[in-house]
Amino acid sequence: MKGKEATMRIHEEVRKMPVSPIRTWTSRLHDLSPRAELTLGEPPQITDSRIIEAAKTALDQGLTHYPPAAGLQSLRQELAKRERQLRGWTIHPHQVLVTDGAQEALAVCCLALLNPGDEVLISDPGYPGTRSVISLASAVPVACAADEHLQLDITRMERLISVRTRAIIVASPNNPTGQVLSAEALNQLGMLAENYDLALIVDAAYEQLSWQPLNFKVLRPYRHRVIFIGSFSKTYAMTGWRLGWISAPRRWEAALLKTHQALVSGVAGFVQQAACTALTLPAESWRQEVKEQCEAAWQRLNAIGLSCPCPGGGFYCFPAIPANAESSEHFALQLAERAGVAVLPGTLFGQRGEKHVRLSVGVRRETLQWALDQLEMFVKAGG
Ligand SMILES: Cc1ncc(COP(=O)(O)O)c(C=O)c1O
């Protein structure tokens, strides 16, 4: 009886929520001691020493107190400048909120803008952290299955709109497919948001790692309802620093700030100070490296017969597994066990991910090469 009462006290959405499926699968596969792990979505290198030095200096200078809730003014100014350049419209520093990674940014947007029962359209396959925060806000994620080329299907998305729909959340480049939204797709999304009075939240965590044009400027006519989410994690190899941001229309500024304050109070000042240094560093060489790795992996996967859409950014490939494979989970387990290569089952990213796996290819060149050789032998031997 006591156990039953304890269960009842847990928030219903939290009770239903799985422990991060990516982390769970990563450690499950890790336990099989594979020689190559292409699982977690993070750069293998450690953060640039200039960023680390900037954090140390900030600590020595005493940046150890509570930071301003919305972020250091200097960082918000730099981010606003960058946002203006990339978006092509005016964004003031007070429209920028510094967050604990893009994950907190997503949570802040959902908790601030959604009411229980509201529906949010998301892409399937897509980043699973988005679903979790929608559910945490007691709202309902409505998955829109990608088309046969794993592109966002906007016609299908429009059919999924109901009287309860409040927002659309999309990532470009997308995790796990690496697909970049075209100017036409973005314009259609903007029009959907306009016609149905929705917020359009664009998760641009991989923005600086895109080699295809991102076309975000086409959203200018809809800017009063568009929110951008950014992250330092992937661009600057700063996953462990937990740093991201939101840039939002003025009418949502106060609600977002109150939510962020209620959740985390603010982001460590010395981390933000180091982020100012990060923004001065070029991302080209890392972008070039992931582009080469992605393209090499994409070509090789298709040559092996695992059909894979060409990624336009980020560091993932999302190939189909052989038609006779039992399921993506079974395939991933067998591949780790028998060929020593760990990849994630596509189903972690939504139902549309079935019969696919995600390879995180931002690893060392030799590791990727070896993993693809093993994958080829595994597939040729009948999986
Ligand atoms: C599309 C997308 N958005 C957000 C995040 C969260 O990133 P952060 O480390 O900034 O919280 C990730 C992490 O993998 C992601 O892939």
UniProtKB/TrEMBL annotation:
<keyword id="KW-0032">Aminotransferase</keyword>
<keyword id="KW-0663">Pyridoxal phosphate</keyword>
<dbReference type="InterPro" id="IPR004838">
    <property type="entry name" value="NHTrfase_class1_PyrdxlP-BS"/>
</dbReference>
<dbReference type="InterPro" id="IPR015421">
    <property type="entry name" value="PyrdxlP-dep_Trfase_major"/>
</dbReference>
<dbReference type="InterPro" id="IPR015424">
    <property type="entry name" value="PyrdxlP-dep_Trfase"/>
</dbReference>
<keyword id="KW-0808">Transferase</keyword>
<dbReference type="InterPro" id="IPR004839">
    <property type="entry name" value="Aminotransferase_I/II_large"/>
</dbReference>
<protein>
    <recommendedName>
        <fullName>Aminotransferase</fullName>
        <ecNumber>2.6.1.-</ecNumber>
    </recommendedName>
</protein>
<dbReference type="Pfam" id="PF00155">
    <property type="entry name" value="Aminotran_1_2"/>
</dbReference>
<comment type="similarity">
    <text>Belongs to the class-I pyridoxal-phosphate-dependent aminotransferase family.</text>
</comment>
<dbReference type="GO" id="GO:0008483">
    <property type="term" value="F:transaminase activity"/>
</dbReference>
<dbReference type="GO" id="GO:0006520">
    <property type="term" value="P:amino acid metabolic process"/>
</dbReference>
<dbReference type="GO" id="GO:0030170">
    <property type="term" value="F:pyridoxal phosphate binding"/>
</dbReference>
<dbReference type="InterPro" id="IPR050596">
    <property type="entry name" value="AspAT/PAT-like"/>
</dbReference>
<feature type="domain" description="Aminotransferase class I/classII large">
    <location>
        <begin position="38"/>
        <end position="374"/>
    </location>
</feature>
